[in-house]
Amino acid sequence: MIFALWCLSLALDQNSFLHPWIQKRRGAALLMPFLLAASPSALSDYRFSPCDGEHQAVDVTLQRIENEWPMRGSGDAVSQYVQKLGVRLAHFSVYGRNISWRFSVVRNLAPNAFSIGGGYVFITDGAVNFVQNESELAAILAHELGHELAGHFCGAPDLSDSGGLFDIFSAPKTQQHQVGVGSMTLAIDPVKEQQADQIAISILQAGGFDPRAMLNVARRLPSGGIAHLMDANRIQSLERTIANLPPITAGSSEDFLKLKRSLAAQ
Amino acid sequence: MNKHKLKVIAAVCSGFLITGCATMEQSAGLAALGCAGAGALTGALTGSAGIGAAAFAGCGALAAIGIYSYHSSQTRTVQQDQQLYGYTAPVNSTEVKIRNATASPEMVRAGDTVKLTLDYSVMAPKGTQNVDVVESMVLKHDGKMIQTLSERPINRPLGGGSSEVNFTIPAKMPPGTYVIEQKVTAGTSYDIRPVVFVVGA
């Protein structure tokens, strides 16, 4: 079991997408399997520290979101389902299971999803409506997990200039650019988006979801609006990665189908 | 005017009656018309008792609730709203957020009047003065929708807006706990806040 977890962590970090805490503390990371072997409870006690300044930046962003955006409550059925699926996905990463994840649903019909660091992930009603099956929803959430697991919030720009959010639905054609969401701005870096995609694919595979869902979501995104352009390079990168993967047939759970029915009825 | 057009207009009119004079921005003392009135009016306008009966049946098993009065106003400027709720404006896209919603009193009997209040913020990109907003209220019981009480499109200035609605509990309203979902929509952004009242025997 421990060996399996260790292998999975290596698989997830195949492109050196180590959480920065781990990068800074490689010795501890290398010792982790042995620590776990010595104490079965070590995993549950093991906690990663956020990057320098990450908590502060997250707190500022959270406050702004709370002040501005209409959110589904944590007791809401859609919120509970998304939280459950997100945590389930995160547990397929050794590092992910040691982060306290909080998935929230924004009451907005435009498809969008983003993470702000500190384990906070946001997805809109529009994104939940947009997906055609559970693997596609898992792909979106896994991409956002990927940003956190890759340590993209370490050294993020000061929020006073409205940076620090990452968005699966947005990507520039060339270099990093910014997309407005609320009073905040998403920092879109093609390299980081592709890194998050790669981690997401690993998570999807480990979780038994179809990694092709990632590509399906990317291809179906509406074109024409700058906020919803998917970089052609990113799609090609996804195509190359997925072409070598064995096919996974993954159906949608009854919970997911129930969720879609309830959203359609609203 | 041919008969088909008349039927369409009558159906639309009865819809307004059912939802409680949705076009009225400010009114007071307007009697609750209920489903019976809507059905009778529809039948009279179309000359068809069947269509009138259909309009009546569309109100559902519960004796319909008619809106007694509706009042809507701007309560805070953008600056006041920002200061109160600490948000940063301008935003990049239109957003609405409900700040407060109430139903009072929470314990009522047939014939009592319930007052619903709704307070929300409207935010929009720089240069926007007004935003098209839809305020709606849906009555639910045991998780099932019973009646759309009101659905009003309003062109609102940015900042804080509020509305106040009064309605009377019909005599035939079964005792129990009811939920009214108050909803505000602007563009792709929307917010919902449920309020609860209990009808006693």
List the helices and strands and how they pair.
The complex is a heterodimer of chains A (266) and B (201).
Chain A: H1 2-12, H2 20-24, H3 26-38, H4 42-45, H5 54-68, H6 77-90, E1 102-106, E2 113-117, E3 120-124, H7 125-130, H8 134-149, E4 166-167, E5 177-181, E6 184-188, H9 190-207, H10 212-220, H11 232-243, H12 254-265
Parallel strand pairs in A: 1-3
Antiparallel strand pairs in A: 2-3, 2-4, 5-6
Helix pairs in contact in A: 1-3, 6-8, 8-9, 8-10, 9-11, 10-11
Chain B: H1 3-18, E1 26-27, H2 34-46, H3 49-57, E2 67-76, H4 78-85, E3 95-104, E4 107-108, E5 113-123, E6 130-141, E7 144-157, E8 159-168, E9 176-186, E10 189-199
Parallel strand pairs in B: 4-10
Antiparallel strand pairs in B: 1-2, 2-8, 3-5, 5-8, 6-7, 6-9, 9-10
Structural class of chain B: alpha+beta
**Spans where pLDDT lies below 50 across 5 or more residues of chain B:** 1-61
Biggest sheet of chain B, open or closed, and with what strands and sense?
5 strands, antiparallel
Q: Summarize the largest interface: chains and residue counts.
A: A-B, 16 and 19 residues
Strand content of chain B: over 45%
Structure summary, number of beta strands of chain A = 6
Globular, elongated, flat, extended or rod-shaped: what is the shape of chain B? elongated
**Rg of Cα set of chain B:** 18 Å
Task: Report Rg of chain A.
Answer: 18 Å
Folded structure, characterized:
The complex is a heterodimer of chains A (266) and B (201). Chain A contains 12 helices and 6 strands. Chain A has helices at 2-12, 20-24, 26-38, 42-45, 54-68, 77-90, 125-130, 134-149, 190-207, 212-220, 232-243, 254-265, and strands spanning 102-106, 113-117, 120-124, 166-167, 177-181, 184-188. The N and C termini of chain B lie far apart (48 Å). Chain B is of the alpha+beta class and 201 residues long. The chains are: A alpha+beta (266), B alpha+beta (201). Chains A and B meet through helix 5 of A and strand 3 and strand 10 of B.
Summarize the structure.
Helix content of chain A is 51%, strand content 10%. Chain A is α+β, with helices and mostly antiparallel strands and 266 residues long. Chain B is of the alpha+beta class and 201 residues long.
